Amino acid sequence: AQSVTQLDSQVPVFEEAPVELRCNYSSSVSVYLFWYVQYPNQGLQLLLKYLSGSTLVKGINGFEAEFNKSQTSFHLRKPSVHISDTAEYFCAVSEGRSSASKIIFGSGTRLSIRP
Amino acid sequence: EAGVTQSPTHLIKTRGQQVTLRCSPISGHTSVYWYQQALGLGLQFLLWYDEGEERNRGNFPPRFSGRQFPNYSSELNVNALELEDSALYLCASYRETGHLRWVNTEAFFGQGTRLTVV
User: Which residues of B touch A105 (CB under 8 A)?
Assistant: First the structure.
């Protein structure tokens, strides 16, 4: 069965510093990977996704993630964060429609930006 | 294009009562997912509906149920409410892109319904 692990529940970072939010997954088949962001009192918004092709995926708001199959990881990075990036970030995995699967989310990482 | 809409936005119920939450997907989306986001527990998968049928179900008791209507909107019903059912309930609609039906794509989320059970 597929699962997603976000090792860091909270990540405090100073403004303009780089950040990496870690995500590891487990699955017995090929997967599709996603990062979502949830701003306070809002629903989830897609940041980026990996379906196939290049392992480096660029998303909105300057975020990018790299799919590493050997390490079963999909870490999210941003070279310089802003106060507006304060939010909760969720990594998600899907094994695809053919297996009647569902999208499984990690427990989330709360990113707090300090001025 | 209107996004995923959920109603109501907030709800307060008493333990033991029943509640119905509603979700309207983006036009053209046939799949609807329901998630529970309880404090400190992340997103827990509840139910997945596609083309009017329940496709998959998370690890929740039978008092959590739902359905999907011919217009692809969906309801989530929770019977015999318990205090720990207090959470944000998120609905997401889902669209396939590409010429291959099996290609997944992202889910689009509504703002959620915040349920408080007292």
Answer: 35, 42-43, 45
